[in-house]
Amino acid sequence: MKHNKLFNNINIISHIEERLNTSEDICKVNFTSKNEKFWSFYLKSGALIWATDNEHPLRRLHRAVTKVCPHVDSRDLKLRETERSELWEYLAIKVLYQRQKITIEQATLLIQEYIAEVLFDCCQNSQNINQVEDIYANSHNFMGAILRHPLLKEPLTEIDFSSLQTQVLKSWQNWQNAGLEKYSPNLAIVIKDKNQFKTSTEESTYQKLTLLINGTRTIRDLSVLTRKDPLELINVFLPYINTNLMELKAIPDEKIPTHKSSSTNNQPSRSVFKEIHQPVEPEPTNKPLVMCIDDSPTINAQMRKILEPENYRVILIEEPYKALKIMLENKPNIIFLDLVMPITNGYEICSQIKKMPSLQDIPIVIITSNDSIMARTRTAILGVADFITKPLKTEEIVSLTHKYLEKFQDSNKNFSRLI
User: Fold this and answer.
1) Rounded Cα–Cα distance for residues 173 and 169 (Å)
2) N- or C-end of the chain: fewer Cβ atoms within 10 A?
3) Centroid of chain to Cα 122
4) pLDDT band at 8 (very low <50, low <70, confident <90, very high)
5) Model-level pTM?
6) pLDDT grade, residue 72 (50/70/90)?
């Protein structure tokens, strides 16, 4: 059913709620604006299961995965041309779950994050929305063909729309109260003239901001990167925007990585869609798991480069406040831990690990540039296994990892003999 009328954010919420209360079948509520943007909400048996739009769906997926599951790289997923559809991001989340890269709780959080952004954008554009369609999955409806997709027959989770819309409306109200109605968080911040900007700011500020502001990241992308709320972040840059040193520009979405349709070396390309219909072998667990907790992407990249060729699985964590949750889910065999990090430092994380029976026996190697007697004494009291200083040395990392994982490797060999 198609409705042509003007909307506001209250109309949008109430229309979705009405369909949630009356639709027993799968239904897609599709809002369209005068400038041909659309926002689609998928409902099944009175529950919200998914939402998407046509602006930045892939960027939105990568942001959600980075926030909820920082150890997962969603860019590793590829699909064939025949698998492209408006449900690609939902397919990606389902495949990550099927591959045991994420838990069902994390999948639910990913979907909530994703839908929240779509609903916020729909509310922000409500004055431009001039059409809404309620599309159902009946066999005579061409527009409803996507709703007969196998992905939607058994959705991963159901989202509580009541609490979600309360959260989103509060965020939108705060955005309006700050006078930001005309600024979309999907816009990228761009430095208009670097020379003028350099002469107008302190050198240290210039260096930091030019690394961050490269014209390819939206406000939301920067929010995840800096771990600041989008509202807090844009307020930092507004003085530069208002003085014409910076501007906001629309940028395209990222491209969906795809396999070529033709096969290579007579090997057919792998279909990620098929993975949700057949068992997927988990990553081999006979390889020791090394976890590195450091807020520096450079250190983490170096650790991966050193350890993966040594046949170790590696999980990298740049947001230390998420470390314990990821540890409990993955049970690493050794932990490399930076001492000086924002929000939660290495001492606090180490203390928490040693209080947990399931984690307390894991060897912890401290990484630091502060090689002082005080630091060594304090970490020794906490029960760490070893201590290394920056800059990292490949031989030292490999040697320490081998040293503390000999027990794991020996027990694995014994187990292999038994089978």
Assistant:
1) 6
2) C
3) 21
4) low
5) 0.63
6) confident
